[in-house]
Amino acid sequence: MRFLIGLLFPFLLIAQDAFLTRTQVLMGTFVNITLPQGQNQEITKSFELLKRIEDSLSSYDPNATLTKLNKTHHVASDTYLTEAIKLSKTYYNESNGFFDITIGSISKKLYRFGEEKTYSPSKKALQDAYLDINGIHMDDDSIRTDKNITIDLGGMGKGYGVDKVTMYLKKQNITEGIVALSGDIRCLNTCEIYLQSPYSEQTFAKINSKQPDLSISTSGTYRRYANTKDEHHLINPKTASQGREFVSVSLFTTANNAKIDAYATALSVMPKAEALTFLKDLKDIGFMIVDKEGKILYGNVTDLVDIEWLDYKENPTKPSMSKNNNTNADIAKSLIHPDTTSPKVI
Q: 295-298 long-range CB contacts below 8 Å, 24 or more apart?
């Protein structure tokens, strides 16, 4: 089974007539689900499941539970939202605070990412933004937040959606197929994946999974920004400033997609030395990162995937953007492509 990660959203390259692929726009992105022929009903039910998750985790839909929580700071307990917040608190601790869903006080409240109009907040507004993961309180009946907290689950929500759909499909004894929400992908069996440059339509690496049930997550600073390309959406919660060291982070594992989705978000805003130390300690998670100079660093992949570096000769072009993404996109004329001539194993 062959698949292309566009680092923004996937394109299916499956040649077998034995599979059926359908696409919908959910959770703010293109969702591609590929299952064996005859499983059309299970694809429909998978989309319905994602819609229910979106109704809980969306920070755009005025009727979604999270949107109401951000507005009123008190909602009745919600199964998906409660679980996503609990997971996010775990990822906060595991990432040394670099993954923090209260970043919404900056990304949502100040920049207004994802809305029709975005803003460029002042340095004072950024420094005064209130972030506190301990300001989220849950019990059996309700979810509450401190007054100035705004939650943004965009750093793990798509991975969480992939996990939920995968769990549902496994209960139906479906063991082949692909579930993809933008750069968050689960191969139910083995698969072949192509990584696309952040700055053009050309691929720079082919990834072959060595074992079934591979999870992939990609995060990139090039995806969307507010009013200048420096105001991208990946913001360090410790400094209230954008991550600058990496252009893209791709992670591979047989663990949950939500986890590596959150980790990819955290790594994108870490200082380089801290990020590399964090990655080397994650023995069960393979990684491929492209730094700001176009250098490729990778590691922990031996048991998970084989990598084939592809010839890369193309001028930068405007990257594709996810549907319903109302933030700006820049034509990357001066940016550096991944350098496949000298990838470095870490």
A: 295/339, 295/342, 295/344, 296/338, 296/339, 296/340, 296/342, 296/343, 296/344, 297/343, 297/344, 297/346, 298/343, 298/344, 298/345, 298/346
| Residue positions counted in the chain | 346
CA angle 59, 263, 312 (to 5 degrees): 105
DSSP secondary structure code for residue 63 in this structure: T
Residue 119 near residue 111, CB atoms below 8 Å: yes
Q: E strands within 60-177?
A: 74-76, 136-138, 142-145
**Alpha-carbon distance 317 to 99, whole Å?**
30
The whole-angstrom separation of Cα 311 and Cα 288 is 17
Other beta carbons less than 10 A from residue 167's beta carbon: 11
Nearest to 296 by CA among 230, 234, 248, 232: 248
Question: Residue 250: which H helix or E strand, with range?
Answer: strand 246-253
pLDDT in tens, 80-96: 999 999 999 999 999 99
41 confidence band (pLDDT: 50, 70, 90): very high
pLDDT tens for residues 292-323? Answer: 899 999 999 999 999 999 987 656 555 444 44
Q: Reduce the DSSP state of residue 19 to 3 states and report it.
A: strand
Q: What is the mean pLDDT of residues 98-119?
A: 86
> Pick from 223, 259, 248, 321: which is nearest to 25 by CA?
321
**140 secondary structure, DSSP code:** S
Evaluate whether 97 touches 238 at the Cβ level (below 8 Å).
yes
* Residue 233 near residue 111 (C-beta atoms within 8 A): yes
Interior CA angle at 228 toward 91 and 121, to 5°? 70
